Amino acid sequence: MKFIRKFLDKITEKTTSGPARFINPLFEAVNTALFDPDIPVDRSPYIRDALNAKRYVFSVVIALTPVLMMSTWYYGYKVLLMLLLAYGIGGFIEALFAYFRKETISEGFLVTGLLFVLIFPVTIPLGVFAVAVVFGIIFGKEVFGGVGHNVFNPALVGRLFVFLSWPRAVSPPVYLKPTERLFEYASSTIDAVSQASPLALFKGTGVSSSFSTLFLGPKPGCIGEISSLLIIAGGIYLILMRVVNLRILISILTAVVLTHFILSLFNTSMMPLSLQITGGGLLLGAFFMSSDPVTSPRSNSGKYIYGAFIGTGVVIFRHFTPLIESMMFSILLGNAFSPLMDEAAIHFRKKKESSYE
Q1: Which residue range is the domain that position 172 belongs to?
Q2: Number of domains into which the chain is organized
Q3: Which among 155, 227, 319, 341 could bridge 217 via Cys, Cβ 3.0 to 4.6 Å?
Q4: Residue at 354 is within a domain
Q5: Does the pLDDT of residue 92 top 80, yes or no?
Q6: Is residue 115, in this structure, part of any structural domain at all?
Q7: Per residue in 96-110, pLDDT tens?
Q8: Is residue 59 a contact partner of residue 238, using CB atoms and an 8 Å limit?
Q9: Contacts for 46 with CB less than 8 Å, ≥ 6 apart
């Protein structure tokens, strides 16, 4: 490993100037990903303990790997093809912007590229998926100044653009038996399938999927929704690694339960609470997207408000709108109001402190 580090250090130093400087961000990114350079940061995420930004990113990748493996086993090799496409396109765009800004590539694109795959159904055409990656990286991150400056989650920005432009392409696939795994989807021209996730099934027919399907999987929907158990296991790992902020997670789940209970008092046809929590992308969003330290509030009080806002929004969107999956909209709205939540939390804290004087 020392030989590799010396080699990368030498290559990185030699490519900082001259005609070969355009490849400097690539070697710098590999060096940062493999080793632990002593470089202070000037923008979020700020890590104040032994868990630096590099280990933060790789903890999320490790937590999502079982979900990716089960999805690949069930849906086929198109999942890996999408992952290569996301990393290839995303890495190229980030390297291009890093070159012109004279900066290094952030290892955060490893998580962003993985999330791009997990928030889409396997039936999405690869061309549309590529557009989502390009749009999400450029307009969700780079136009704001890159990592640490983005207001919105880049993967969700790309998904929102595709949802508004090609809504049928975001429709999840039908539930297939294990003997009918989607190996053929790599060359399929199917744009969408009408029968979809457990949430869509309940909204259309009033029939709820079994708890074993909802919790253990595999269940239809987006690639990352395949098993609630694996998502929770990965989330617990992130909690133990102190990556997931418990304030946001607890407030999201509490808000979902309370909002569901209140609406159930006025509507007896509400979906079961188990379906509300495990039937769609709520767990995936709560554990792996809402706690993004860049797009979420920085104050503790703001985190509670942010989580409650997302959890309440999910249930309201699902109940009062035709939207089947609403975690995307709730998180993006939470991202937009995140600075305001911080300002409100700071204002009330100062007001409270002044009352003691």
Answers
A1: 53-345
A2: 1
A3: 227
A4: no
A5: yes
A6: yes
A7: 887 787 776 766 778
A8: yes
A9: 293
Amino acid type, 33: A
For residue 182, pLDDT over 70 is answered with no
The rounded distance, in Å, linking the Cα atoms of 242 and 19 is: 42
Between CA 147 and CA 187 the distance in angstroms is 34
Asked if residue 356 is part of any domain, the answer here is no
- What is the C-alpha separation between 197 and 175, in angstroms, rounded? 8
Mean pLDDT, to the nearest integer, of 139-168? Answer: 87
Which residues contact residue 32 at a Cβ distance below 8 angstroms, ignoring those fewer than 6 apart?
Answer: 39, 54, 104, 105, 107
Q: Which amino acid does the sequence have at 170?
A: V
Total residue length of the chain: 357
- Between CA 61 and CA 234 the distance in angstroms is 10
pLDDT at residue 178, rounded to an integer: 42
| Under 8 Å between Cβ of 226 and 218 | yes
| Digit-coded pLDDT (tens) for 241-252 | 888 888 999 999
Residue 22, pLDDT score: 52
Structure tokens, 107? 């290892």
Q: Which residues of 249-259 are buried (b: 16+ CB within 10 A; e: fewer)?
A: bbbbbebbeeb
The token duo for 60 is 């999320």
Among candidate residues 127, 197, 138, 224, the one with its CA nearest the CA of residue 169: 127
216 occurs within a structural domain: yes
Eight-class DSSP state of 220: S
